[in-house]
Automatic annotation (TrEMBL):
GO terms for cellular component: membrane. Residues 34-145 form the Cadherin domain. SMART domains: CA (SM00112). This is Cadherin repeat domain-containing protein. InterPro entries: Cadherin-like_dom (IPR002126), Cadherin-like_sf (IPR015919). GO terms for biological process: homophilic cell adhesion via plasma membrane adhesion molecules.
Length: 415
């Protein structure tokens, strides 16, 4: 009797299982899914996470689960498994030159039933801004930067070592060769000392070289307040007292082989020196409101051209300089101009625009027929001003940072 009951129980369970399977099959047979191909055109170089759209899919009952089963290139996009939203996953893959079209296959599933559709993302080729060279810049904190000349991308690439980390460097004293950046640190240790700071552009190392001021130059607070190149060495302006106005300023020669200083026997009293450049036997010094100094190093004469004031001298050729001419009525307001050296005249090349100089001190450069400066105004934290003296036009490339210290000047190019 027990045997027959067991056989009956097994048969009953078998029928129940079969009935459940038949029921499931009936349910699956009732589920249908409809899904459409997804196609979109977008500009190349989107941001990661950018919403691209939703895969359109419906089901007769229940809900759909979305998944990407294939994509080329891999990891380009992602999909929300519930909503079907497609987003950019890896922004670097959305480059027209590399992947003009991104493709994939999306699967919509529901209770074992699934349908697939194609994903096609066509990229639009856009005119990308690229840098044909980088600018070398340095700040009064000794920071060294590269700045893309067309993109405005700024990157700190080094730090000029100072004896005192709190020292503020005059941008008048920042100059560069192909290999090194030179500047002067004025520090007390305990008496006033002028350190020559040398930064190697190739390996980022620094030297701190204390300079010995000639005893023939009087003064309690003697400080070098400007530098420029002088036959592969340096020429400097030495103030007898950096704290007191209208005292003599002495031209000195700094030999970079032994770091010795020689007095050149030329003095003047102008205080607001903004930039300095040497061409042949002439030294040209700009000031902010105290005229333009035309100094003959051979006959040791100083000529002050009172009607020329400004900053950011840059050599165009042996007879012309670019400069930012000071504009009265504006705080550090200036505009680009060209100076004719033989007759000491200035031609306004600004189309009447006035730009702000965060620091009026320091030189600039002339590169590829363009005069370059770092400027600022109420709407611009910091930007590269490019002046074409042939067309008398200027354009601005905005620096892509609002946190970098703006007291910096352009020294050179890096490539």
């Amino acid at each position: 009797m027990i045997k027959f009951r067991l056989i009956y129980l097994v048969l009953a369970l078998t029928c129940l299982i079969q009935s459940c399977n038949d029921s499931d099959n009936d349910i699956n047979e009732d589920i249908t899914i409809s899904i459409s191909d997804f196609t979109i055109n977008i500009d190349e170089n989107p941001n990661a996470g950018l919403y691209l759209g939703i895969v359109e899919a419906t089901t007769s009952q229940g809900s759909i689960h979305f998944s990407i089963t294939q994509q080329t290139p891999s990891q380009a996009i992602e999909i929300n498994p519930i909503s079907g939203e497609i987003n950019v996953l890896t922004e670097s893959l959305f480059d027209y030159e590399t992947n003009p079209t991104i493709t994939g296959i999306v699967k919509a599933s529901n209770s074992g039933v699934s349908e697939s559709a194609n994903i096609t993302i066509n990229l639009n080729d856009i005119n990308e801004v690229v840098d044909d060279y980088n600018l070398l810049a340095a700040s009064n904190l000794g920071e060294v930067f590269e700045i893309g000349n067309n993109t405005g991308i700024i990157e700190k690439i080094g730090q000029i070592k100072r004896e005192n980390d709190n020292s503020i460097l005059s941008t008048n004293n920042l100059i560069s060769s192909e290999d090194k950046i030179y500047c002067i640190e004025y520090v007390y240790n305990p008496s006033p000392t002028n350190n020559l700071l040398v930064f190697d552009r190739h390996n980022g190392t620094s030297q701190i070289i204390p300079l010995t001021i000639p005893s023939s130059i009087n003064g309690d607070e003697r400080g070098i307040i400007a530098l420029t190149w002088y036959n592969n060495n340096l020429i400097g302006v030495l103030a007898e007292n950096v704290l007191i106005s209208n005292l003599p300023k002495h031209l000195i020669h700094i030999d970079l082989d032994d770091n010795s200083i020689t007095e050149l026997g030329i003095t003047f009293k102008e205080d607001k020196i903004t930039s300095m450049i040497k061409i042949d036997s002439k030294l040209y010094i700009s000031t902010w409101g105290e005229g333009f100094l035309d100094i003959d190093l051979a006959n040791k004469s100083v000529n002050n051209v009172s009607y020329i004031n400004g900053s950011r001298l840059a050599k165009i050729n042996d007879s012309e300089l670019g400069m930012m001419e000071a504009i009265s009525g504006y705080m550090n307001g200036a505009r680009p101009a060209m100076m004719n050296l033989p007759n000491l005249t200035v031609t306004d090349n600004s189309s009447e625009e006035v730009y702000g100089l965060v620091t009026v001190f320091g030189n600039s450069i002339y590169e590829n027929q363009i005069y370059l400066n770092l400027v600022s105004n109420n709407d611009l934290y910091l930007g590269i001003m490019k002046t074409n003296f042939e067309t008398n036009t200027s354009s601005i490339v905005e620096i892509n940072s609002t946190s970098v210290d703006r007291n910096l000047i352009i020294l050179d190019t890096t490539d």
